[in-house]
Specification:
Number of helices: 8
Strand content: under 5%
Distance between the termini: 32 Å
Order of helices and strands: HHHHHHHH
Radius of gyration: 16 Å
Oligomer: single chain
């Protein structure tokens, strides 16, 4: 199909792989608090939540580095499972639309963050990362899973 309109204003090469933009991904959630949550289903999320919780409560005497490595492994597995290509493509389109809205309403600066996220989300999750946006959606969803009164934000089967 035709290229999304945002690319008439901002070139992908200007925002791709810029850590400074990906580091600001939290700003997307300040604008759209539950961005991407429509992609998550409770029954798919639950096993990853359980694994995460078990790892957090683990009595094993692990060093901080080992713990971090363990969490990274759990997160990567979750991202691969929760965000197959079709879901990532839908998230990308959604971010391109958001980038255009931001470009028109709030200027280029915020639009660049959304566009950097759109390009990041295109790639399959990898241990080399950053998977910045997918990781953020997953970790925010885990927070909500801990708060039963908010669970309605996650799709029930």
């Amino acid at each position: 199909g035709p290229s999304p309109l945002i690319y008439a204003h901002v070139s992908p090469d200007e925002v791709r792989d810029r850590p400074s933009l990906l580091g600001r991904i939290g700003e997307i959630f300040e604008i759209v608090p539950f961005f991407g949550f429509w992609a998550l289903e409770e029954e798919k999320l639950r096993p990853h939540y359980e694994e995460f919780r078990t790892a957090s409560e683990s009595p094993l005497a692990l060093t901080e580095a080992q713990k971090a490595q363990r969490f990274d492994g759990i997160i990567l597995k979750a991202l691969e499972d929760l965000f197959p290509e079709g879901v990532r493509r839908a998230l990308k389109r959604s971010l391109e639309e958001l980038a255009l809205i931001l470009f028109k309403g709030q200027g280029r600066d915020k639009a660049e963050v959304a566009l950097a996220a759109a390009l990041d989300v295109e790639r399959p999750p990898s241990a080399l990362g950053p998977n910045a946006l997918l990781r953020e959606i997953f970790l925010r969803a885990l927070e909500i899973f801990r708060e039963p009164q908010q669970q309605s934000l996650i799709l029930k089967p």
